[in-house]
Amino acid sequence: MNDYLGLVAGIVAAGIGGELFVRGAVGLAHWARISPGIIGATVAAFATSSPELSVSVNSALDGTPEIALGDALGSNVVNVALILALALVIAGIQSPRDSVRRDFPVALLVPVITGVLFLDGVLSRVDGLLLLALFLAWLSAAVIEARRQRSAAEAVIGTPRAGAAIASAVVGLGFLVLAGNIIVISAKGIATTYGIDEFIIGATLVAIGTSTPELATTVIAKLRGHDEVSLGTILGSNIFNGLLIVAVAAIIHPIEADWREVAVALVCGLIALAVTWPPRDGFINRRRGVILLALYTVYIVAIAQGMTN
C-alpha cells in the first residue's frame, strides 16, 4: 500500500514541479536571450533526466546495470510514444527549425548506434566512452547555437526578472527530482514483488516512473503554449538518456542483457521518432499522436510477451 501511495505522491509532486520549472525555463530563456527550445533541449532535458541518471548510477554501482539500460531505452519510448503523443493529442506542435536540424537527427542516431554497439551482447566501458564522446559533441553544438541566438537577441515570451525565473526553475527542479525518485522507488517495489526480469522492470515501470518529470514538463509547456519547450525537452531527454545515461552505467559496470528485449525497445524508440519527424512546414499534427499511442500499445504488448517467455 505504501508503494501505491508513493506513486500518487510522486505524480502530484511532478505536476507542481513541472508547472514551476516551465515558468522558470521560459523566463530564463527570456533573460538570457536564448530560445526556449534550446533551454528545453539542454537545461530542461537534463533536469527531467536526473531521475534516470540517479537510477543509472545506483543500479550500476549495485551490479545491476541492466536496470539502467532498460530504464534509459524504455524512457525514450515513453517520452515519444506516450508523453509527446499525449501533447500532440491535445494539439499539434510546431517544430522549431533548429530542433529539426540539430536534435532530431541525433535522437534518431542514438538507437541505431546503441544497437550496433550491442551486437556482441554487451556494452563495454569502451562503448560507454564512445557514447559519452558523442554526447559531448552534441552538447557542444547546442552551446554554440545558444551563443548564436544570444547574439541575435531573439525575443521570446517569459518572465523578465532573472532572479524569479531561476528561483522558479530551481524549486520546480527540486519537485521533479523528488517526484522521480519517489515514483522509481515505488515502481521498483511493486515490480520486484512479482519477480520480473531486471531489464523489463527498467523498461516498463521504472521507465514510466523516471519519465514523470518529462510528462509534467511537456504537457504543461504545451498547455501554456510553449511548443518549443515541450518538443525540445523530449528530444533533449532522449539524447541525454541514450548517450549520457547509458554511457555512465556502462563505464561504471559493463552491461549485458537479452538482445531480444533490448531490440524491442530500440526498434520501437526508432520508429516512434521516425513517425514524429516533422514535414517541411514543421507542424506535427494530432494524427501522429494517435499513431504514437498505438505504437506504445504495441511496445507494451511486446514487452509483456517477453515477461511470459
Summary keywords:
309 residues; A middle domain of Talin 1; mainly alpha
Q: What's the SSE blueprint?
A:
Elements: H1 2-32, H2 36-48, H3 50-61, H4 65-90, E1 93-94, H5 97-117, E2 122-123, H6 125-152, H7 162-192, H8 198-210, H9 212-223, H10 227-252, E3 255-256, H11 259-276, E4 283-284, H12 286-308
Antiparallel strand pairs: 1-4, 2-3
Low-confidence stretches: 152-159
**Looking at this structure, what is the CATH superfamily?**
NCX, central ion-binding region
What is the domain tally? 1
CA-based shape: globular
Q: Total number of helical segments?
A: 12
Percent of sequence in beta strands: under 5%
* Major β-sheet profile: 2 strands, antiparallel
| Helix share, percent | over 70%
Description:
The chain has 309 residues and is mainly α. The chain has a single domain, classed as A middle domain of Talin 1, CATH 1.20.1420.30. It is 82% helix and 3% strand. A two-stranded antiparallel sheet has the order 1-4. A two-stranded antiparallel sheet has the order 2-3. Helix 5 (97-117) runs parallel beside helix 10. The longest helix has 31 residues, at 2-32. The radius of gyration is 18 Å and the shape is globular.
